[in-house]
């Protein structure tokens, strides 16, 4: 409408670009992504907590997928995200991925928060919300407890967990070796089945093999019965012969 009434085009472009950047700055998209991080902390802490609950593999796998998605969307992820993801991989039995993420959380230079001087926008928003939760834990008690528990586990057991994953990663059998063992076991099972079948089919020494009969072989063929003749059937005359004799006598 401004263009129709004669407003300059370059001013329209300028205000359009300015409005786009203002919208991007104040859009809630970054806050939504930040809240996903704390939701990931809640699910990870619930799985990693030492209690009597037994978790299905697909539940832990879904939690690791959420953590991987967070790492893809963030240029600089918090070390606690790497630790939580590595601990989940360790619980799942994927020690290669566990060692990778645990090293990012406790061993590499990026694991020290003091080394991050120029944070990206999403990390700054994450830290702002984290400090708010720490100052007022009563507002989000479950999230605050999850963050404290994961941080305590990272500090007290992070290096030990990394060493365990690395040790198990090197002691795990190779995939090719496992496939070869399975092939050998399958071949042995087939040979054993064939041997058992031949033993069952072979008759014992001194014992005649069993004879199988077919019902069609033992059935006797039916013989057509001939009509029985009475003793005096040969002496009887037919009706025509009787009539013929009768007429001859009368004549």
Description:
68% of the residues lie in helices and 0% in strands. By secondary structure, it is mainly alpha-helical. The protein has a domain at 26-174. Helix 5 crosses helix 7 (141-171).
What is the overall shape?
Answer: elongated
Distance between the termini: 144 Å
> Major β-sheet, in short?
none
Class from helix and strand fractions: mainly alpha
Output mean pLDDT: 76
Q: Secondary-structure blueprint of this entry?
A:
Elements: H1 9-26, H2 29-48, H3 57-73, H4 79-92, H5 95-106, H6 121-135, H7 141-171, H8 175-201, H9 215-218, H10 239-250
List keywords for this structure.
251 residues; single chain; mainly alpha; elongated; 10 helices; 68% helix
How do you describe this structure in short?
The protein is mainly alpha-helical. It has helices at 9-26, 29-48, 57-73, 79-92, 95-106, 121-135, 141-171, 175-201, 215-218, 239-250. The chain has a domain at 26-174.
